[in-house]
Amino acid sequence: MALDPEAFDDLVRAHTDRMYRVALRLCGDPAEAEDVVQDAWIAAWRGRASFRGDAAVSTWLYRVVTNTAMAHLRRRRPTVALDEVPAGRLTDGRPSPEAWALLGERASAVHRAIATLEPSQRVPLVLRELEGMSYEEVAGVLQVSVPVLHKRLYRARVALLAKLEELR
């Protein structure tokens, strides 16, 4: 089931933002994330004829961007902290400036800790916890079974907690 060029244009418009978020969370650098997404789209275009249709197109694209990001990470040491802090609200309405500062510090610490994880731990954690993908979707992207994914996520969460303790 090859993708035709018109359908591919639609995919680019529909999925670039999500692919960028994944790349940014895996690489930690906005410029590198842009390079990763561009390289991923090139790889997807070149490999479009091999898309079999046995998984959702979005799963296939997540796999392409994840593999591309991993290739970029192998070429450098993954020590860059993520600087993007997600916006959020406290449960009691509008947060005070102090609350925003504390929330930003905590989120920044979590992102720094995630950036120090090994890619084999960082990838499933980012896809599941930050991107909100289901276990089945993440397992499909990583081409592993759901039980194997559960084990990887457990190890990633344990490692993340240890990293957060180190940052304290």
In short:
By secondary structure, this protein is an all-alpha fold.
Unreliable segments (pLDDT under 50, ≥5 consecutive)? 78-92
Distance between the termini: 51 Å
Strand-residue proportion = under 5%
Radius of gyration: 17 Å
Count of distinct strands: 0
Structural class of the secondary structure composition?
A: mainly alpha
Report the principal-axis shape: globular
Describe this entry's structure for a reader.
The chain is mainly α and 168 residues long. It contains 7 helices and no strands. The longest helix is centred in the N-terminal third of the chain and has 23 residues, at 5-27.
Protein traits:
168 residues, mainly alpha
Describe the secondary-structure layout.
Layout: H1 5-27, H2 30-46, H3 57-74, H4 97-116, H5 119-130, H6 135-142, H7 146-167
Helix pairs in contact: 1-2, 1-3, 2-3, 3-6, 4-7, 5-7, 6-7
